[in-house]
Design goal:
The chain is of the alpha+beta class. Helix content is 61%, strand content 6%. It is built from 16 helices and 8 strands.
């Protein structure tokens, strides 16, 4: 083995290591997202959820006593002082949260911002109290001030409190909805308690009471519908209990008398206090018990989730490190063998090995690496199938777009894996037996590159490509298209078209970049026609890969200046690889701006008529509209699809 061979092995192992690390990183990221969500929910519940609950209860109590005091024209009582102290203790816990730094809450920055806004509102509560104590604050203004603080407290809850589409998230939303319904009842209690303390209920208060009762009853029913089955049963039991029945009777009396001179007739402070306190206490107990039971139900699933994440992240990292260390040892051993003096002259390079000689360690390791890479290829194929099913089932535009982005990244990873197998001298598992329309092959190549929306495909492709050459030609065109995209402006397009040639057909990839000077063009064409056996030269990996892929399938690649000043890459496909058909023509009557989406090319063993079927998710042109037919003017846009099609 020569130094060139060692350099080639080192390059290939470096590429394989990069692919392996990328695959592990992707798997670790996907599997850890649910675990991160779960940790965030638990941390928020422990550090902020309980203090927020206590704060809301304290504010509700202080609001009612304050309203009763103002309505009765009295001074601050020990009961009011105690309620204020309870509010201040709960507020201190919120302030501590905003100052702390819990690593589990790194992804909950929006919650911190909302908690900070709540602290600022609580800082202004002292002014409200001072104005009330000096008689400079009216009843309506006082109640509104407390209502605003409570609203800000509820806004601290948000999407960060629920793991993505989990049962715990649904339970959390139901508990928050029930707590909001209880707040409406607490506001109703404040209004009625103040009216009873002042022995009057004005017209504005009567209208507000009517609205509160209706909204509160509706909110309770809606919140109950979102509770788990045991929570719904408990809420139904409370709604039919004597305590709640008494509250409903008092509410109905107040509503019926709201248009009379004495709305409060027949309603005493003692009766209202007993009914309201019982109902509020029972609702708070239901909120607490439902939250506790939802956490208990989520605990077994959380344990499985944490174990799965640990296996993927921890064990996966161990496997990656072991493989990397093994490869490093292989390179070091090969280097030492080159520098170690030989005891005897080496055998001639062309001397055959003994028939019964066991495979060398290098061959065994190569087979191991290729085997692992092929397994990764199978996993990527299965992952693409799952993503396709998710996209077919998904209806949200935003989530479908995110799934498409993930799908496209997976397709590009698969391209790297298959390219690595090819550069190692082996054959990827994804193959076709029957001819495939060359138009589908071109679209499959576009699906494997970034910025695919800048690629325009000509409409007329009356050829089919031999099945065994499909995978290599797809990757070959993808290399040339990606190179054209990288070396041309982001506001330009890359055009792909086919032309008849006497010896077969040619696929042209044309860009509007700055082009190449004569020396660089000659160097590139030499590399494309004569790829070095010891690996790619520095800075020319793309052209080297294109040359190797072309050599495998029997194609020939060359570069020339384009008519617009950019570069045109010409892939000549010999007659033995292509047949003239009509399958590549645009549909009869199709307008010039018909879109042709990238074709799905991840079928494990394509068969049938050899076509790569397509499925369009988004119609409409994304490029220029014209009817010209020359190489540099025909521009058939590639559709922005959510999937390479199956």
């Amino acid at each position: 083995m020569t130094h060139s061979d060692v350099r080639l092995i080192r390059t290939r192992l470096a590429v394989l290591a990069a692919v392996l690390i990328t695959l592990w990183s992707y798997a670790a990221y996907v599997s850890s997202q649910d675990a991160v969500d779960l940790l965030r929910v638990r941390a928020l519940a422990d550090t902020l959820g309980q203090p927020i609950d206590r704060l809301i209860l304290s504010l509700q109590m202080e609001r009612r006593i304050t309203a009763e005091t103002i309505a009765g024209a009295g001074e601050a009582t020990p009961e009011l002082v105690g309620a204020r102290d309870a509010t201040d203790r709960a507020a201190a816990e919120i302030r501590e949260f905003t100052k702390g730094r819990d690593l589990r809450l790194l992804s909950a920055g929006a919650v911190r911002d909302r908690a900070g806004e709540l602290v600022r509102r609580l800082d202004g509560l002292g002014t409200t109290r001072s104005r009330m104590d000096t008689g400079r604050l009216g009843l309506a203004a006082a109640i509104d001030g407390y209502d605003e603080v409570v609203d800000v407290a509820f806004r601290v809850y948000g999407p960060e409190w629920g793991a993505y589409e989990s049962g715990l998230a649904a339970d959390t939303r139901a508990v928050i909805a029930l707590a909001r319904a209880r707040e409406l009842l607490a506001r109703e209690d404040t209004l009625v308690s103040a009216a009873l303390a002042g022995a009057r209920l004005g017209a504005d208060e009567r209208r507000r009471l009517t609205a509160l009762v209706g909204v509160q009853r509706y909110a309770n029913a809606e919140a109950a519908a979102g509770l788990p089955s045991e929570g719904q049963a408990e809420q139904q039991r409370l709604a039919t209990s004597p305590e709640f029945t008494a509250l409903l009777a008092l509410e109905d009396r107040l509503l019926l008398q709201s248009g009379t001179a004495n709305t409060l007739a027949g309603v005493t402070v003692q009766d209202w206090r007993a009914a309201a306190d019982t109902a509020l206490g029972a609702l708070q107990t239901l909120v607490t018990s439902t939250a506790r039971s939802s956490v208990e139900r989520a605990t077994p699933g959380a344990a499985v989730l944490i174990a799965r994440t640990g296996a993927v992240v921890g064990l996966g990292l161990i496997v990656v490190l072991v493989l990397l260390l093994s490869w490093a040892g292989t390179i070091r051993r090969l280097t030492e063998e080159l520098t170690r003096p030989k005891a005897a002259a080496p055998a001639p390079p062309d001397a055959p090995a003994p028939p019964d000689a066991p495979p060398s360690r290098d061959d065994a390791e190569r087979e191991l690496f290729l085997g692992l890479t092929r397994r990764n290829q199978v996993l990527l194929r299965d992952q693409l199938s799952v993503l396709d099913l998710m996209q077919r089932r998904e209806r949200s535009t935003e989530e479908t777009g995110e799934l498409f982005q993930l799908d496209h990244l997976t397709t590009r990873i698969r391209r790297n894996v298959e390219k690595l197998i090819t550069l190692a001298g082996a054959t990827p598992a994804r193959r076709w037996r029957r001819p495939v329309p060359l138009l589908d092959v071109a679209r499959g190549a576009v699906a494997e590159v970034p910025d695919y929306h800048r690629v325009l495909i000509a409409p007329h492709w009356p050829w089919s490509l031999a099945g065994p050459a499909v995978t290599d030609v797809i990757h070959l065109l993808a290399e040339l298209i990606e190179n054209a995209l990288v070396f041309s402006g982001a506001d330009t397009t890359v055009r792909v078209s086919g032309e008849h040639r006497p010896q077969g057909c040619a696929v042209l990839v044309v860009d509007d970049g700055p082009g190449l000077d004569a020396a660089a063009l000659a160097e590139a064409n030499h590399l494309l026609g004569n790829p070095p056996p010891d690996g790619p030269p520095a800075g020319r990996t793309g052209w080297y890969a294109a040359a190797v892929l072309a050599g495998r399938c029997g194609a020939h690649v060359s570069l020339r200046p384009s008519r617009r000043g950019g570069t045109a890459a010409i892939v000549l496909l010999p007659a033995r690889l292509v047949t003239v058909t009509d399958t590549g023509r645009a549909p009869a009557g199709a307008p010039p701006d018909t879109q042709y989406p990238p074709a799905r090319t991840d079928l494990p063993n394509p068969s049938g008529d050899g076509a790569l079927p397509t499925r369009v998710r988004q119609a409409g042109p994304i490029g220029p509209e014209n009817g010209r037919t020359s190489l540099d003017t025909v521009e058939m846009p590639v559709a922005r699809t959510a999937r390479r099609h199956q």
